[in-house]
Design brief:
Blueprint (H helix, E strand, L loop, with lengths): L6 H33 L4 H23 L1 H18 L12 H25 L3 H20 L3 H17 L6 H23 L5 H11 L1 H16 L10 H4 L1 H4 L11 H30 L4 H19 L7 H15 L16 E2 L2 E2 L2
Helix pairs in contact: 1-2, 1-12, 2-3, 2-14, 3-4, 3-14, 4-5, 4-6, 4-13, 4-14, 5-6, 6-13, 7-9, 7-12, 7-13, 9-12, 12-13, 13-14
Amino acid sequence: MTSASGPGEDCDRRNVSDAAGVAVLGACAVWALVTAAVHDGRPEGVLLAVLAVAAGYAAGRICGALLPVAALCAAASAGVVLVVATPRLSPGPEIVAPLGHAGGTAAVLTLSTGAACCAAWAAHTPAWRLALRGAAAGFVVTAGVLGSVGGCVASASVLLASLAAGRMRDHRGAGFAGLALTAVLTSALPWAIAGKALPEGLALSLEGQFTRHRIDLWHDALHLAHHDAALGVGPGRFGELSTTATRTLLSDGKPHSAPLQQVAEQGVVGLLLLAAVFCWMLYTLWRSRRPAPVVLTAGAALTALAAIASVGNALSFTTVSVGAGLLAGLATARPLTDESLPQAAETRPAGDRLTP
């Protein structure tokens, strides 16, 4: 089967996606330097994260083109081995507050589960698909054994979303719209809690789940954002200006919410750029010629990562940034050999429908 549009148009679409990625990541780096210059901040962390995502994405595109299934399997295995070998992931040379470790572990296990599920959909034999889904289920169990409740829930959600993706071959656009809506709702949760916009009973219940300390950090982030909504207080300066962080003996200087950290340190523009990176990844997956279950599974894993990062410190880990870019690159890479699902051949989307 051939697609309704020719290879030239497909190349143009890929070029547009890649150009958008370069523009968004470049804007993130430039804006971090601008806000750091204005407020004497430290942009190294943001620049490292941008480099990690770009490097992971490029590596994923190359490896995914050469070994579409094996590369996904290797990425999934590497993530789990890393978590088991170093269960207390740290964003720096020192051991810091447990909040960060929990977020990093949950994020890596979630991305590993997504990679295993993508590999299952990309495999051509039923035995391999069953084995890879069994491995993904094993990652969920591993998260539970390691005591990562967030990782267990997020990994299980990715596994279930991957199974459901098999029924959405003709509606990948609707699937990605649902993922985007989920990301918006989960990212809004810490804002609602910090801004005291939730009913008292629900707020007390969530306070027990997230701890008073974390919610106080979110309050401080909102306060700093109100102080300078345009430019923020400068990258890396939250720990200096947050009263909650300065009172904590082993503080890592983070508000443990990626959206709140962006708006506090880099203003509204920084927050919009963070959202633009996520939207670019979903857009690239949506436009990919890979089968819909593969790209929807990768999108589900990245959405779960966004949910973890919205209430934790996951994006402070270089490993997580590399893993997110790697999964997006592997899922959007065009294999050098023809790829189709055993159940039905698929081609890239025209709009949000697959055309034979």
